[in-house]
């Protein structure tokens, strides 16, 4: 098993996506050895930090394509996922592996990729696995989107209890990134709506929406920068006592402590 202190080797599945690339960048900034595994196997940008990441092509559904890359790894981070089974929105964002997973279902992308990575991580005695889940199901999105993520959460927490794998689940709300203006626009609209309801003391509406979406509380309605989630991820992986399911407020606290 990899050492629990100093420089660590972190393997990020979906490292060329908006969140995955933010996590890779944060890990590089903190001096870790970083490996990205994605179907394309290419860096999403030509920024200097990408030269410090090993970019590999692999299929999360096929452990034979990446098993060797998990040898000696301290942590794995699973960021592979889709909000919609149609690939149009990922093509619009021009990020991730939309072209490769075209036609795949929630069960394959959100659930089966994570379960395959989890089993392979245990086989190689990886210390920690961070799974990026979601705080709630957005309105209009198929219920299977969140159901498949909750299935992974239960499996990871079960593995955490039955094996040496430390399971960490992040449940962020909507995530945006400065690198993709369309996500910024949605995030800004959500912030304006939050300010409006707060100003008019319409907390009941927020609570109703959160409950309708199946969220634990109304923090699920707060948009979150991918940089914030990435900083929180680094802090969680570095602190051996962090485990279990972390809600948006927990993620914010981890990110804040990471920056101190």
Key structural traits:
about 260 residues; 9 strands; alpha/beta; seven-stranded parallel β-sheet; globular
Write a short abstract of this structure.
By secondary structure, this protein is α/β, with parallel strands linked by helices. Helix content is 42%, strand content 14%. It has a 7-stranded parallel beta sheet with strand order 3-2-1-4-5-6-9, with helices on both faces.
- What is the CA-CA span between the terminal residues? 29 Å
Number of helices: 8
Strand content: 5-15%
Task: Give me the secondary-structure category.
Answer: alpha/beta
Poorly predicted segments: none
Strand order of the largest sheet: 3-2-1-4-5-6-9
| CA-based gyration radius | 17 Å
Sketch the topology as an H/E string, one letter per element: EHEEEHHEHEEHHEHEH
What's the β-strand tally? 9
What would the average pLDDT be, to the nearest integer? 83
Tell the overall outline: globular
Share of residues in helices: 40-55%
Characterise the protein shown here.
With 260 residues, this protein is an alpha/beta fold. The protein has helices at residues 18-29, 88-93, 106-123, 143-162, 181-199, 203-212, 226-238, 248-258; strands spanning 9-13, 33-38, 53-57, 75-78, 128-132, 166-170, 175-176, 224-225, 244-246. A seven-stranded parallel sheet has the order 3-2-1-4-5-6-9, with helices on both faces. The protein has a two-stranded parallel sheet with strand order 7-8. It is globular, with a radius of gyration of 17 Å.
């Amino acid at each position: 098993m990899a050492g629990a202190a100093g420089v660590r080797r972190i393997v990020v599945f979906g490292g060329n996506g908006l969140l995955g690339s933010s996590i890779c960048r944060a890990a590089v900034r903190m001096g870790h050895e970083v490996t990205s595994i994605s179907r394309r196997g290419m860096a999403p940008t030509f920024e200097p930090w990408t030269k410090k990441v090993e970019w590999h092509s692999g299929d999360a559904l096929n452990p034979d394509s990446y098993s060797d890359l998990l040898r000696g790894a301290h942590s794995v981070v699973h960021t592979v996922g889709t909000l919609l089974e149609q690939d149009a929105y990922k093509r619009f964002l021009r990020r991730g592996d939309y072209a490769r997973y075209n036609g795949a279902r929630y069960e394959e992308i959100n659930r089966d990729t994570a379960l395959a990575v989890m089993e392979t991580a245990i086989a190689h005695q990886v210390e920690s696995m961070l799974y990026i889940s979601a705080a709630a199901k957005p309105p209009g999105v198929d219920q299977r989107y969140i159901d498949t993520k909750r299935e992974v959460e239960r499996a990871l927490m079960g593995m955490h209890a039955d094996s040496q794998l430390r399971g960490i689940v992040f449940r962020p709300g909507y995530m945006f990134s400065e690198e993709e203006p369309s996500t910024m626009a949605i995030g800004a609209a959500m912030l304006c709506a939050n300010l409006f309801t707060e100003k008019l003391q319409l907390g009941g509406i927020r609570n109703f929406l959160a409950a309708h979406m199946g969220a634990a509380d109304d923090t699920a309605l707060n948009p979150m920068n991918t940089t914030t989630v990435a900083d929180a991820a680094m802090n969680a992986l570095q602190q051996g006592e962090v485990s279990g399911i972390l809600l948006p407020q927990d993620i914010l606290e981890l990110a804040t402590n990471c920056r101190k």
